[in-house]
Each structure stands twice: as structure tokens, then as C-alpha cells.
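Table S2 (text version). Query chain:
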Amino acid sequence: DNEKPSQIFHFSTYTPGSEYYGLPEWIGAWNSINLETETRNYWLSNIQNGLNPSLFISLNNGQGTAEEREEVYAQLKDMYEGSDRAGGLMVSWNDSKENAPEITPINPNGTDTAWTVVSEFIQQDILSSMKISSPMILGIKTPGQLGGRDEIKVAADHFLRTVVVPIQKILLKQFERILFMRDQKVIKLEIVQNELISEE
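Corresponding C-alpha cell output:
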């Protein structure tokens, strides 16, 4: 309808270096989000590949020049390394099969502990970027906490006061601004707040 054209109103809070569009709250955890994706991909690939921790390639066709070895290694690395092809890459150039090196697997110590620490860090970083101070309100069990109704309610009320209500105030102000532009008069809006965790 030409008499009542449609319009889009865009609003974002100030973000340094971003003139028109703001950045999402979780942008601070971008690396952790990628790390979580790659970690899951790594373990999935490891299981699909029989839990082999690394890859050893023995080339028994002579040493070749340094440039040739570098090119072959780069091609193999592109083919076999990364979380999609979980495990490291080791390449050996030999004059013959008889001169091939003997490989002794080295089992890394503390791997389980390392993954546990990394996983906990990733989770905390992502939750913090979303301003979630307690994972209990998302149904994530926290070690050392009972997770009873009172604890969850306190965490939910804190999230409501410190995260939800400030965002609601910003949105109300913008809606009131749009209504003023339309009607040329001040219209005050209010939110009837429901509790995140009811008393019942």
C-alpha cells in the first residue's frame, strides 16, 4: 500500500568500531564457542576413526630434496590434520623399508584431566558471555551445589534483575519512541513481569 508504506526500525546499543550494527552479547566467547565445536568434532572423529591418537606415514621411496619433502608434508598435513581427522601427523622419509624408523607410541599423561578442565572453562566462558551467573537456571547441574528450589529461585531472580529487566527497559524506551513518532504524543508502556520460577 503506497499510502501506508512499511518501514523497519533498527536499534542497537553502542559498540566501539561498529557504526551501524551492534554485536551480540556472546561475541566475547567466540573463541570458546569455536573451541567447543572443534572439541566435539575431534572426539566424534576420534571415535569414528577407531580412537587412533595420531597418524604415522613412512615413505620408503628415497629422501628427495628438502623442497619436495616440504611439499609432500604440506599436502599430507592438509589431508590428515584437523579436528575432522583427529590426531597428529608424523612423516618419515626412508631410503628403503629396511631403513624405516621404529615407532614407539607415547601415551600422553593427564589427558582426561586436561579435557575436563578445558570443558569446564568453555562452559563457564559461554555462560558468562550470556550473563548467566548460575547454570542452574538452565538446568545444568553444578558440582557441590544441591540445586534445590530455593537456590534456583535465587539464581533466577538475580538473572531477572541484572539481565532481563535492564534489557526490557531499553526495549520499552524504543517502543515508546516509535509510538511517539507515530502518534506525536507521549505514550508510557509498562511490563507486567512474570517470575521465571513461580512460587508454586
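Notes on Table S2: The chain is about 45% helix and 5% strand. The first helix runs from residue 30 to 48.
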